[in-house]
Amino acid sequence: MKDVKIPTSRSYREFLIESLKNPERSAAYIEAVLELSEESPDPELLRAVLKDVIEAQINTNNLSESTKQLHEKLDKMLTESNASEIYTFIQLLNELGFQLTITTKETQSSPADNC
What molecular function terms (GO) are annotated for this protein (predicted)? Predict the structure, then answer.
């Protein structure tokens, strides 16, 4: 039998990072982990999700140096506090009858666009 080359598929991680280049998908990804965290907080999962989103944005060259620094600062805070502040905030919102929603930021239109 001849050597048959079977095409290899992309890894799940590659697929995930590629899909997170889409801002709406990134927002949904972050929101999903925050919703899961309402019942079972998982600081490591939250850190991993944020890292994935950051990696996708780095791959698109769509990340400023200040954003990278903010991510490093937040990652350190999440590690040290076990993300308790974020989860407490989400729990408080839930008790008040609110929920946190993650959406993409709308780009501001220039005055000429409104004409």
Answer: DNA binding
